[in-house]
Please model this.
Amino acid sequence: MPNRNFTAENLQLKDNIDICFKLNSRDVKIKVPCTYTLLDILRYELKHTGTKEGCGMGECGACTVIMDGGIVNACLVLATAVSGRDIWTIEGVSAKEDAKPIIDAFVAKTATQCGFCTPGMIMASYYLLSKYKDPTDEQILEGLSGNLCRCTGYAKIVEAVKAAARELNGAKKEARDA
Ligand code: FES
Ligand code: FES
Model:
């Protein structure tokens, strides 16, 4: 259920707000309870359930999305702060050509087990690889430090990010040489 302490029954119409934003390059206009977070909007109003709800308090990174070019925890962004933003979720990013090597590497390196953290990990990895062409272990660990995984022990995830970086760099080189 969305936002735990507030239900549709105890909210008045005046508690709803209109917001407009871009989601995965599409315009969205929606009326939502002002107590909602971006995570509530994505999952419960827009059915973008690829963004996961773990802790709901900014600790686990399962809800990682890209907002105005930076990564944020969607559970910490209030609905009132969403208007005018450019938001990308796993649904949009996973359709991008330059995300495919990351997703493939997570599968190839068995960097995903139960998969609950995986959308957030992919989003954080995508952002990381947009900043660093060839990240060091330290940069990867720092870049993913806001994302928790209870299954993999992280080594496979670091391997996957490095493999994706190699693949992306190879693809860019091929494109340059063509
Ligand atoms: S659900 Fe947002 S950080 Fe855990
Ligand atoms: S694969 Fe299960 S939490 Fe990361």
Observations:
- The chain has six helices and five strands.
- The pocket of FE2/S2 (inorganic) cluster (ligand 2) is lined by residues 112-118, 149-152 (CB under 6 Å).
